[in-house]
Amino acid sequence: MRCWPRRKPVFRGTPAVFLDRDGTINRNRHGQYITLPAQLRLYARAPEALKLLAGKGYLLIVLTNQSGIGRGYMTPAVSRAINLKLVDDLRREGAFLDAVYFCPHTPDDGCGCRKPATGLLEEAAASGRIDLARSFVAGDKRSDLELARRAGLKGHLVLTGAGRQAAARTGKRAFRDLLALARAVPDVKRTK
Ligand SMILES: [Mg+2]
Ligand SMILES: [Zn+2]
After folding, report:
1. Above 80 in pLDDT, residue 191?
2. Which of 18, 112, 116, 124 could disulfide-pair with 146, CB 3.0 to 4.6 Å?
3. 2-184: CATH number
4. pLDDT for 14-30, tens place per residue?
5. In whole angstroms, what is the distance from residue 25 CA to residue 27 CA?
């Protein structure tokens, strides 16, 4: 489901970064869910990372699992407020998200949108056009990498959040954080 922007966006054929939220853009809470807007804290280098990615020509599209809704830890309205705080906090730093999609379900619901299922990515891709061939997924968990694999995209791991565990298990090259990743990916405005 989409929570931002209010109206269905129309993407115009540029590549996208499909960004995980907790542990990638903002701090995760160890063993706990973010269930209040006040608990959402950006990583210090995240706004700069997102500005750099946008400047390189990528759409910034957040895809986030929020099973805390389905588990009854927060209402959909509170989850929405948390996501809008993310949008606002970043905007205040000059970083503008293009869209935020979330899955409210628990693993037991068997939905098609909880990562690593591809439903959220497909929902985004159905809003106009996205250059998927040059898009990638960025996240701190194996489920983010698995999402990328299932969607046929590149997946990049960051070492923030749960990234160290994920990197240890997968043996995959990982970036210190989202800014290190943003510096490493190609500028897609110039290349075609
Ligand atoms: Mg995460
Ligand atoms: Zn779902």
Report:
1. no
2. 116
3. 3.40.50.1000
4. 999 999 999 999 999 88
5. 7
140 as an active site residue: the answer is: no
**% of the chain exceeding 70 in pLDDT:** 98
Could you tell me the distance, in angstroms and rounded to a whole number, from the CA of residue 150 to the centre of ligand 2?
Answer: 16
pTM: 0.97
* Of 87, 101, 98, nearest in space to 47 by CA: 87
| Ligand 1 centroid distance, CA of 143 (Å) | 9
24 CA distance to ligand 1 middle (Å): 6
Spell out the domain ranges in the chain: 2-184
Q: How far apart are CA 45 and CA 22, in angstroms?
A: 14
Q: Which of 20, 140, 144, 177 is catalytic?
A: 20
User: Closest-lying ligand to the alpha carbon of 162?
Assistant: 1
- pLDDT of residue 192 exceeding 70, the answer is no
Q: How many CA within 13 A on the CB side of residue 36?
A: 2
Q: How far is the CA of 72 from the centre of ligand 1 (A)?
A: 20
